[in-house]
Design a protein that fits this description.
By secondary structure, this protein is mainly α. The chain is 67% helix and 3% strand. It is elongated, with a radius of gyration of 33 Å.
């Protein structure tokens, strides 16, 4: 492009060169969609080392402002070209990089292209910026980027920015930012299939007073979903009990499955079909054994329920109840016994599973308290027999 080259190489003042470059771009705008190569050549000419940074910044700022007024598609196309051209000179054009990428992120977010929105925001220099952003602003931006990556189903990138946000947070962090961080972290755990930890986080957040009642209900629903598909065991039983005690959980369509799961009842195929419709895509993924996460969770739950009903059961009968093959039934029981989620052993010669009753910690505590009460009564009977007998009769002990 000889004209722009002649403008830049002229002996005019920097101010005049900047004005003529802006006028040149104005003449290019009406036919910009047909002259992408001309736009690229213009950027290359403006960003050459022979042109002072002050002039280049003025022209790039003008281009950014003009591009924002173009139709959405054209704005995204040419703003993307500009952003790519500035990628290697971010620190020299920090304000322009921030402005163009923030605008593109807003447009992509409105179009629900969340990963693209997050990618453009991640280009903005926050920690090494010449602007000296506050920790609150930096944390807020990192959390926004993490949230967008989660909406775009990219938990690995989201976790990277959550870690960066956590380094900016401390005792003086605003409560709203702490809540936003916890929301993103719970969702990241959900995506990573750490359903037990996610359920706990969701349940805690469902009681957060800074959130709206609608958001609290949504988080409680997420807690129930994660708890039901979490691996069966003592920890899951505890959180299911907490969820059942929450009156709000009885308003969900799948409350019957929640109650059956908490009570240790066998879950039927019809209940599973209804519940499956409530799950998100990442919660329906297949495991290496070709079973879905829900199918595996239900099978493990039913094994746990069966262990409370039977002292022993033949593997073929267990497989029939679980609606799986005998080798699959043996494998899941063996896995649960190994992980100490149930107690028992498998007699592979006779093909029988034996379940063992294990006293829970609270049962042991109750025994200790009862023994201490009995000891206290024995002491009272020795010291004050008449008074103690009268009291025992009154309370029918």
């Amino acid at each position: 492009m000889s004209s722009i080259s002649s403008i830049i190489s002229s002996n005019k003042s920097p101010e005049e060169i900047a004005q003529q470059c802006c006028r040149f771009f104005d003449e290019l705008v009406p036919t910009l969609s047909e002259k992408e190569s001309h736009f690229r050549d213009l950027l290359d000419s403006i960003l050459v080392d022979s042109l002072t940074v002050g002039v280049s910044r003025k022209v790039i700022s003008y281009i950014v402002t003009t591009l924002k007024d173009l139709p959405e598609e054209a704005c995204l196309q040419f703003s993307g070209i500009l952003s790519e051209a500035l990628k290697l000179r971010v620190m020299s054009f920090e304000d322009q990089v921030t402005e163009v990428n923030t605008h593109m992120a807003s447009l992509y977010e409105a179009r629900k292209e969340f990963t693209k929105a997050a990618s453009h925001l991640s280009v903005i220099p926050l920690e090494n910026s010449q602007r000296n952003y506050s920790k609150e602003y930096t944390t807020e931006m990192y959390l926004r980027i993490a949230h967008l990556f989660l909406q775009g189903c990219d938990p690995a990138q989201a976790e990277l920015f959550l870690n960066r946000a956590s380094l900016q947070m401390g005792p003086g962090t605003q409560p709203q930012l702490t809540v936003q961080y916890n929301l993103c972290y719970a969702k990241a755990l959900d995506f990573r299939k750490k359903f037990m930890e996610a359920a706990k986080r969701y349940l805690e957040l469902s009681l957060e007073p800074l959130l709206s009642s609608a958001k609290q209900t949504e988080l409680l629903r997420n807690a129930v979903l994660c708890a039901i598909i979490a691996p069966a065991g003592l920890q899951r039983s505890r959180i299911l009990a907490s969820l059942c005690k929450d009156e709000r959980s009885q308003n969900f369509l799948f409350s019957a499955m929640l109650n059956n799961t908490q009570l240790g009842h066998l879950i039927t195929h019809d209940q599973v079909s209804l519940f499956e419709k409530e799950l998100e895509d990442h919660q329906l993924e297949k495991l290496p054994n070709e079973m879905s996460i829900l199918e595996a969770a239900v099978m493990e739950h039913n094994v746990l329920a069966i262990s409370h009903i039977y002292i022993s059961i033949r593997l073929e009968n267990l497989a029939y109840l679980l609606r799986v093959t005998q080798p699959q039934a043996e494998k899941v029981v063996g896995k649960m016994i190994t992980e100490q989620r149930i107690s028992g052993y498998i007699d592979q010669i006779d093909g029988v599973v034996f379940f063992e009753s294990v006293s829970q910690p609270w049962d042991e505590h109750i025994d200790v308290v009862c023994n201490k009460v009995n000891n206290a009564i024995d002491v009272l009977l020795q010291c004050e027999p008449a008074f103690t007998k009268e009291r025992l009769q009154r309370y029918k002990c």
